[in-house]
What does this fold into?
Amino acid sequence: MTFGRTMALAALLLALPGEAASLGLAEPMRTLNGGVFNHQCVVVNNVLYVISQKGYVAWSKLGGDGDLGPWGYAANLFPEGMGQNYFCAAAWLDRIYVMGGDQSALVVMARAKPDGSLEPWKKTTALPEPRFYGAAVAVGGQLYYVGGQYHRRVFHARILGDGGIGEWKETERLPANRYGMQVFSHGGYLYVVGGTAIKPVDTVFRSKLKADGSLEKWRRTEPLPEPRSGYGGVVAGEDVFVFGGALGNDAELTTSAVATTIGADGHFSAWRELPWLPMAACGLQAVRWRNWIYVVGGITLKEGGNTVWNTVWRYRIEEKTQKGEP
It folds into this structure.
């Protein structure tokens, strides 16, 4: 992304009226012992987990001041046949679920131990078909797998009392194929933000959750200010935050971060500019814990060699203000 184009986008976003999502500047935190990208991050029992290729896991206990404790590491390898790349993950109570990847349909789960480490990965009910580079979320005792490369089908399954999952059922399909996106839940809706069809897109879809876990028809809401894929994103309160990613192709990466507020009717407000990332990257992940957002890893593609980041950046979520207030 060129400097001129970035500044033009920032000027447009800052000129928009409405409530401003307020974040502090990015702060560097305790780094990982190696770079990660296209990994997955979840928070369980006040512990941040980073799940990377083949099932390697790093974890750090989160302190009351938002600091990271020393990283623990385990070669907690996935069972044979599990995808090694482009899988997705979600957490429910004290369990982490990892789905698909590399044309695999397998789903595995692990329980978080009191010391922060994980029990060995165990297989549970597989997806109806192989998937990779989709998105997952757990909400209301249901686990959802959305999209995937060249796919628009959506599946959901009930999380059982023993932590396993029941039969996967298909529900309302996305209006178009999506991968490299994130799926968020808030206020009885699921949101699919951006991602890639053939190239990155700016489209945002939303669907209302039904009592049985199925979905109503997907509808559009306020699009991203620019097409974006491979970003890190979270929901915090009524705000959706999006960090970094690819804008046009893998080489056109951005440092920008944007936010929107979810209205009472389920629609997004106009997107707003946030403090930028210190580096342009895609394949990164973001998680929220209390009043902090953590942006983990990512990759910067460039001639002469790529940079795979081992960094963790922390943003503090501050009180929202109305545009024009001091």
User: Anything to note?
Assistant: Confidence is low (pLDDT under 50) at residues 1-18, 322-326. The domain at 3-322 is CATH 2.120.10.80 (Neuraminidase).
